[in-house]
Design brief:
The complex is a heterotrimer of chains A (about 350), B (about 290) and C (about 280).
Chain A: H1 19-42, H2 47-71, H3 73-108, H4 113-117, H5 135-166, H6 171-181, H7 186-198, H8 207-232, H9 235-243, H10 248-259, H11 261-276, H12 280-285, H13 304-314, H14 317-348
Helix pairs in contact in A: 1-2, 2-3, 3-14, 5-6, 5-8, 5-11, 5-13, 7-8, 8-11, 9-10, 11-14, 13-14
Chain B: H1 2-25, H2 28-31, E1 35-39, E2 45-49, H3 52-83, H4 86-101, H5 104-130, H6 147-171, H7 175-183, H8 188-216, H9 220-225, H10 244-252, H11 257-291
Antiparallel strand pairs in B: 1-2
Helix pairs in contact in B: 1-11, 3-6, 3-8, 4-6, 5-6, 6-8, 7-8, 8-11, 10-11
Chain C: H1 8-19, E1 31-40, E2 43-53, E3 58-62, H2 69-76, E4 86-94, E5 97-98, H3 106-112, E6 113-116, H4 128-132, H5 134-139, H6 146-156, H7 160-163, H8 176-188, E7 194-198, H9 206-219, E8 224-228, H10 232-238, E9 241-246, E10 253-259, H11 260-265, H12 270-276
Parallel strand pairs in C: 3-8, 3-9, 6-7, 7-8
Antiparallel strand pairs in C: 1-2, 1-4, 4-5, 9-10
Classes of the chains: A mainly alpha (about 350), B mainly alpha (about 290), C alpha/beta (about 280).
């Protein structure tokens, strides 16, 4: 029977932990912390590891015992499993936080105006930070990205189009190839370009040589993302184009690709993010330079990852500081690219 | 189309360069631990190249990476799929994806300056309590820059891949089976144990293999934290070692023409290894996702 | 109030009532819903449902799609709360105790109140035998004689003869009707006092449907059964009591409940009359 006063009833969630239950859990955790300190003080165990280990032991033990007393063995096992899952997640997230914070803290110590306005042309990596900068590496990285994109974007796009639009007989094989290519270690790409082009010819390391292995690494990433994006374009658009009398290629060029535009841009950004931080291939193909080199075909070049690498290799405090600052700049670039790709990706949905 | 051309070019050229070395070395290239050139009595230079030290080192470091990284990734994936409150889920997933974007040299820097000191302490503990196990034995107390530390850094690097794949698989666990388990009075862990894990098992294996493929070819991170010495080392806690990629880099600077070709051959071997592992991984993962098993 | 329209259903229901004696010593358990509401986020899906399920009886919940029957039945074994943003109000009493009170172990409740779903969902990674005993394994219950329990549960579900020689075979090879009976056996193995069934036959062929209806009649001798069904003939065949649910665009409500034969021949509410005589739904 209908009841007109039903609107006065409040929705509840009695299955969720009540305030009292939550407070009790906090209490258990606090006791676990306290007990860890006591044990460390009394026994020969020491160090952060000891605290972490003891805390885990006690907190899991308390919660499991509590659950076991109230609800039996399965509940205790469930509590232990839950704690282990949380512990796993914490162990996974801690390094990430550490990575970001360490980079920011250590890297920012070396930030100066001259970091961005000067190159290493007149300074050595071991000189104090007030001299020299990474401008040449920054420009080198951007240059490399530009050339690598120019090379790989058409190839990747055409391959993606072939796989999604044409679906010819070779499609399965090419799909397989793209997947295999995406697993190529970066050093192998660098070594290959070296073997193919530098070993037996008179060519030397240069920007374009450095861009080639990066293109090899970039193509599969861009292709795969482009594929996904193209598949999202509704079939009716294609049918509409063909119904209007256009050939398949014309339809693709004028309708499908523009429809997927933001997704394709995302694909390129992801590809760039993939290669921006690559170091190994550059060691074989880029040559060296301590100044900006605008000639892509001749003469060595620097790049941010290489800047960091050489700083680390030299080992002096100033060089190490430069390395941290360099990686900070590189990380910022990568994070900006990553965020841009995310935002674009969300917009199209 | 063009990717076909490029990929086969990689294989062909490396193979061509490599075969020259193979011809002069034979199968010993893979099994011998020596890497040297010596001059014999008549002044002729003899080259002896064998990459077994590289291969064993790669194996050791990758095993550590997988043993540490895969369980952590699976736990994190379980946490994200079944335990995390909805409001925090997106945030955590973004963090894992960001991890994948970090340049490997960042892991190298951080691994050397931040992780190494702590890992050295852990290695000492392991040696103290488990030193009876052959792999954990050390000849002298030199725990710095060991394969163990390199393996730890690599384990963190493979976590994003393995976690993403595992999470995707777990989130596809059929809802009706999950409900059946709960309706029978299962706790959350009991449900995971009987429904989610059997469902996701093969997918996780595929994800682990993808992580392995990533670990096999890692260069700069390993080079930064590990004391690269060209010698076989089975003692994972002991302070030297290397893998194929880092050893190529370490020998590259002073390599003669012949030696360079041998290094290229080593690169070819690495390429084939990672190719096989990745192919296997991809086939497992796609098969699992398709069958919806 | 309503001019009674003699319907085929009422005669079926009366037929059942005549042949099926109400139990004098039921082994079932008393389940009562008091003022149950349910929400999905802000959407008020179910309003003020109060219903008593007598031990040893079968109660059918009928009504058009989307009026809250499935939501209601899921509040009875606390499966409703798995939906994110779910909320409820009211009480559900099992043997006098509210299953939503704090401190209750919900996994124990679900052992006592079992559920069979619309789409059969045996665990594919397990054999037939393992499926039946899965409830024991999940709850880590001990049992002295597992083979006996296995045979008993499959017999009660009407499946024993068909699978007794292939208990070690994977459960995926069974037909739809067999799978559903396997799920029933699985629920029975943990000895529930109440069995909830959410349209258990709607995905099955008529032959399997009738066999499961026979099973339901047998089972009702020892437990309380609540069955959601779209099929009014099934409700007439199988249930002692019927509750009619309806939503007029707002939250679903229970309009009327009564002995099945009366509900189909002399319902008190005009809306019930309209539904059972097929004027809508």
């Amino acid at each position: 029977m209908t009841n007109l006063e039903a609107s006065a009833v409040t929705p509840l969630t009695p299955w969720k932990a009540t305030l009292n239950q939550r407070l009790f859990t906090v209490l258990l955790l606090a006791v676990a912390i306290a007990l860890s300190y006591v044990v460390v003080a009394v026994t020969p165990m020491k160090g952060k590891l000891a605290y972490a280990f003891l805390f885990m032991l006690f907190s899991v033990g308390f919660q499991a015992t509590h659950a076991g007393i109230k609800r039996g063995r399965t509940a205790a096992v469930d509590a232990i499993a839950g704690s282990i899952a949380v512990a796993g997640a914490v162990l996974v997230f801690t390094p990430v936080i550490s990575l970001i914070f360490t980079t920011i803290i250590r890297g920012s110590k070396g930030l100066r105006v001259n970091t961005f306005t000067q190159t290493m042309e007149h300074a050595a990596m071991t000189d104090p930070i007030s001299q020299g900068g990474l401008l040449h590496s920054l420009i080198g990285t951007l240059y490399l990205i530009l050339i690598a994109t120019v090379i790989s974007l058409p190839l990747a796009l055409l391959t993606a189009l072939y796989l999604t639009e044409i679906k010819g007989r070779a499609a399965g094989f090419i799909q397989f190839l793209v997947q295999a290519m995406s697993g190529v270690p970066s050093i192998v790409a660098g070594v290959f370009i070296y073997a193919a082009l530098l070993l037996t010819t008179s060519l030397h390391g240069s920007t374009i040589m450095g861009a080639l292995p990066l293109a090899i690494l970039m193509i599969p990433t861009v292709t795969r993302t482009a594929q996904e994006v193209l598949l999202l374009v509704p079939q009716d658009l294609r049918e509409a184009g063909v119904a209007l009398g256009a050939t398949q290629w014309k339809t693709v060029a004028t309708i499908v690709v523009p429809a997927a535009r933001s997704g394709l841009i995302t694909a390129v950004i992801l590809g760039i993010a993939r290669i921006a931080g690559e170091t190994a291939p550059l060691l074989f193909t880029l040559g060296v330079s301590d100044k900006i080199n605008w000639n892509p075909l001749n003469g060595g070049q620097s790049a941010l990852p290489y800047y960091v690498w050489s700083g680390l290799g030299l080992g002096s405090p100033e060089a190490i500081q430069r390395a941290w600052t360099g990686i900070l700049v590189l990380l910022m670039i990568v994070l900006v690219l990553f965020t841009a790709a995310r935002i674009l990706g969300r917009e199209k949905k | 189309m063009s990717s076909l051309v490029i990929l086969s070019l990689i294989g062909i050229f490396l193979a061509y360069r490599g075969f020259e070395t193979f011809r002069s070395q034979g199968i010993h290239f893979l099994t011998s631990p020596d890497w040297l050139s010596e001059t014999d009595a008549s002044g002729k230079v003899i080259y002896k190249f064998g990459m077994s030290a590289m291969l064993i080192g790669t194996l050791l470091i990758s095993i550590v990476a997988v043993i540490v990284g895969v369980p952590l990734s699976v736990l994190a994936a379980l946490f994200l799929t079944f335990y995390a409150p909805n409001s925090l889920k997106k945030f955590f997933v973004t963090i894992v994806d960001v991890m994948a974007a970090f340049p490997s040299i960042l892991y190298g820097l951080w691994g050397f300056f931040v992780l190494s000191p702590m890992a050295e302490y852990w290695a000492k503990l392991i040696n103290k309590y488990f030193g009876w196990f052959p792999a954990f034995h050390v000849d002298d107390p030199s725990f710095n820059s060991s394969p163990f530390i390199a393996g730890l850094v690599l384990s963190i690097m493979i976590i994003p891949i393995v976690t993403s794949v595992s999470r995707e698989i777990f989130s596809q666990t059929p809802l009706d089976r999950i409900q059946a388990a709960y309706a029978l009075g299962a706790t959350r862990w009991a449900m995971i144990r009987t429904v989610a894990l059997p469902f996701g098992a093969s997918g996780i294996v595929g994800g682990a293999m993808l992580g392995l493929g990533r670990a096999l070819g890692e260069t700069v991170a390993v080079y930064s934290v590990l004391n690269i010495v060209y010698k076989i080392n089975w003692h994972v806690l002991y302070g030297f070692g290397g893998n194929v990629a880092s050893m190529i880099v370490s020998k590259w600077g002073e390599a003669s023409f012949t030696e360079a070709k041998a290094l290229l051959a080593a690169g070819l071997v690495l390429f084939i290894m990672t190719l096989l592992v990745n192919m296997g991984a991809n086939s497992i993962v796609t098969r699992t996702i398709k069958s919806g098993r | 109030m309503s001019t009674s329209t003699p319907s085929v259903l009422s005669s079926v229901a009366q037929n059942r009532a005549a042949h099926h004696e109400a139990n004098s010593a039921p082994m079932g358990s008393g389940l009562e819903a008091r003022g149950v509401h349910a929400w999905f986020g802000k959407h008020h899906a179910l309003e003020n449902v109060s219903l008593d399920f007598n031990p040893g009886t079968v109660t059918a919940l009928i009504g058009p799609s989307g009026c809250g029957k499935s939501t209601f039945i899921r509040t009875l074994n606390r499966m409703h709360e798995f939906i994110p943003s779910a909320a409820m109000a009211g009480e559900v009493l099992l043997d006098g105790k509210d299953i939503y009170s704090s401190g209750i172990d919900v996994t124990q409740i679900r052992l006592k109140i079992g559920m069979v779903f619309q789409k059969p969902n045996p665990f594919p990674s397990m054999t037939i035998g393992q499926n039946v005993l899965a409830g024991l394994k999940l709850a880590q219950l001990k049992h002295d004689n597992k083979e006996e329990l296995l045979e008993q549960s499959l017999t009660r579900a009407g499946l024993w003869n068909e699978v007794k020689d292939r208990l070690d075979v994977s459960a995926g090879g069974l037909s739809g009707g067999q799978q559903q009976r396997l799920c029933i056996a699985r629920s029975l193995a943990v000895n529930p006092k109440v069995l909830l069934m959410d349209e258990p036959c709607s995905a099955l062929d008529p032959g399997s449907t009738l066999r499961i209806e026979d099973t339901i009649s047998e089972l009702s001798k020892t437990m309380t059964i609540v069955i959601v069904t779209h099929n009014m003939q099934q409700a007439a065949r199988v249930s002692d009591y019927t509750a009619f649910f309806l939503s007029d665009g707002g939250p679903g409500q229970m309009i009327e409940v009564g002995p099945t034969s009366e509900m189909f021949s002399r319902p008190r509410d005009q809306r019930t009359e309209n539904y059972v005589s097929g004027r809508f739904g």
